Amino acid sequence: MATTVVMPQMGYDMREGTVVKWRKREGEPVARGEVIADIQTDKATVEFEAYAAGILRKIVAQEGVPVPVGQLIAVITAPDEPLPANLPSPGTPAPAAAAAPTSAAAVSAPVAPQAASAGEVRASPIARRIARERGIDLTTVTGTGPGGRIVEKDVEDFTAASSAAPPRQASAADQPAAAPMPVGAQRVELSRMRQAIARVTVDSKREAPHFYVSADIDMTRAMSLRRDINEHLAAERRVSVNDFIIKACAIALGRHAKFNAFFRGDHLQMNADINIGIAIALPAGLMVPGINACQSKSLVQIADASKDLVARANSGALRNDEYSNTTFSISNLGPFDVDSFAAIIFPPHAAVLAVGRVKEQPVVREGQLAVAQIMKATLSVDHRVADGAEAAQFLVEIRKLLETPLSLLA
Fold first, then answer.
1. Which of these is catalytic: 203, 210, 273, 383?
2. Which one of 115, 134, 149 terminates a domain?
3. How many domains does the structure of the chain reveal?
4. Between the CA atoms of 191, 208, 249 and 362, what dihedral angle is there, to the nearest 10 degrees?
5. Is 382 tagged catalytic?
6. Which pLDDT band holds residue 9 (cuts at 50, 70, 90)?
């Protein structure tokens, strides 16, 4: 059966993507999991993998042309199967059955007739997400998209017109400054990545009620163990302080699953895999790609994966699952000599851990003054998901693991 491939939503606020290069040509065979295109989002160029095997029968999205999330970009068929006759024309959304997913777990779907079945509500993925977050029943919204499909603007208009839900207030990130610039001032246009960062951070602070818990972590033993491990590893495979933190978080998340979950309006989505995002500073801005399935990786495997991830993030060669499937994130400003800070939660995560540098300072141990290597950590938490006591227990779990680092090797 023919499979439509649509522009996936590879990120919380992704509205559109651009195929910068097709790796396969029409008529060529495609294997499941094979990279068929490079897709550029606001923040990165991501390798897009096929989720069905067959023949790339039709390329709809042209290179360099922005395509909205959920719109048809290609069709994969069986070797002897003809191209379906009911494909939407270029520039229109794909059939509802092939709507863009919110993760890379499924980016293709069988071709279906465009007409909606009785009682079915046709809506874009973005419209569905906004409606879910605001508690809006989509059956009460009038769609203005092709074939009566509900699009983002329809939900926004419904919100503004509803007395039960006040209209969304425009923020500084949404609008350019109206005041004229003073003499001598210079206008600097924001990059697409910086604009995306502005949207995500404003949405996060507006929608997720943040609270913060902090702790000092004694890294003395961890730093000693790190030296011992690195003595037996090649220079390119050495373990970093951040690798220890990722491993400790992976174990702690396995014991406190709520912090690996997503808030979904009336329920929590409990994620099976622990996919930890790493905040990476690029010249154009910040991105948070992730190491997938950290729960099954050793400390050294995490170190290898981390180095590879950073290198490919800088070269623009991330895979779509690394870019869109993260479930928790870590922001480390230790390399910049920062002692402590609080990070903004990366939607739809429930929390983010912010850590500073490891610094020698005096401590009291059993009544005696000593010198220890201390790292300050702050956990930002979505209060819709967890309360203060739960956050404290989770952060203490991370601290215990790092202060007894042999537990990270078990």
1. 383
2. 115
3. 3
4. 90
5. no
6. confident
Q: Rounded to 5 degrees, what are φ and ψ at 360?
A: -70, 130
- CA–CA gap between residue 202 and residue 196 (Å, rounded): 10
pLDDT-derived band at 125, boundaries 50, 70, 90? low
Catalytic, 387? Answer yes
| Domain ranges, residue 363 | 210-408
- Residue 56 is part of a domain; what is its CATH number? 2.40.50.100
Closest CA to 393 of 211, 209, 213: 213
Region 170-197 average pLDDT: 74
List residues bridging with 18 in a β-sheet.
Answer: 40, 66
Helix count and strand count (H, E) for the chain: 8, 20
Q: How many CB atoms lie within 10 A of CB 318?
A: 22
Amino acid in position 346: F
Q: Is residue 353 part of a domain?
A: yes
| Catalytic residue chosen out of the listed positions 174, 308, 339, 387 | 387
CA nearest to 50, candidates 78, 70, 31: 31
The whole-angstrom separation of Cα 14 and Cα 68 is 9
State the Cα–Cα distance between residues 195 and 159, nearest whole angstrom: 24
Is the pLDDT assigned to residue 167 strictly greater than 70?
no
Residue with tokens 């210079």: 186
Residues 292 and 356 in one domain: yes
The letter for the amino acid at 153 is: K
Answer whether residue 111 shows pLDDT above 50.
no
